[in-house]
Amino acid sequence: MFEKDIQIHGKHATYVKDLAKPKDDNSTKKNQEDDSDSDNQTTFKPFNRMIDVYMTGAIFGLLYKKTAKEDKESKDKIRIFADTFSKERDKCIFLYRLVMLLDETTDLSSEQRIDRAFRADSLPDNEEEMKKNLELFHDYVRGGIEIMHEQFIPTIHNTPRDYLSNTFD
Q: Distances from the Cα of 63 to the Cαs of 30, 42, 144, in angstroms?
């Protein structure tokens, strides 16, 4: 679990790009220098890395009880590499277990949720159930990404002050 690259497709990939700084900060700095005449034209992203958007998306999706299926209409895609996940693996597993425990979209008992969160990934013959559980986790991540995009991007006028004001609200 969280040992391979993960691709995010469609509008969710676009949303992640809107929320996270590009890997090459030189392009962002150049754009900010070019637009230094007006504070409203600078580019500001709430997250430094795509993995941060991914992990926070799981939390937002869970808090707002929002899931979203993968968007297959748009051709946009991003990839979060396995080496990034290796650095954040413990946090991702914690978030996965949290989602599996607190998910209310199924009518599982508390004991079944505990089994799903802590035992399903340790049994070698549970591959199908693990795929289903990871898909549910990714549904929450995508739902959270949609919520963050709705809350941060349309109301930000590309200034840090607007972002902070919106975050406080």
A: 37, 31, 9
Ranges of residues in the chain whose predicted pLDDT is under 50: 25-42
Helix (H) or strand (E) holding 78: strand 77-80
| CA atoms of 35 and 18, how far apart (whole Å) | 18
Helix (H) or strand (E) holding 11: helix 11-19
Contact 155, 162 (CB under 8 A): yes
Express each pLDDT in 60-107 by its tens digit. 999 999 999 999 888 899 999 999 999 999 999 999 999 999 998 888
pLDDT at 167: 67
**Nearest in space to 81 (alpha carbons), one of 6, 132, 142:** 6
Contact 99, 137 (CB under 8 A): yes
Please say whether the dihedral angle defined by the alpha carbons of residues 20, 26, 27 and 29, taken in this order, is positive or negative. Answer: positive
Enumerate the H helices of 42-168 as residue ranges: 50-63, 82-102, 110-118, 127-152, 160-168
List residues bridging with 104 in a β-sheet.
Answer: none
Intra-chain end-to-end CA distance of the chain, in Å = 35
The SS3 of residue 7 is strand
- The three-class DSSP label of residue 28 is helix
- The pTM score is 0.82
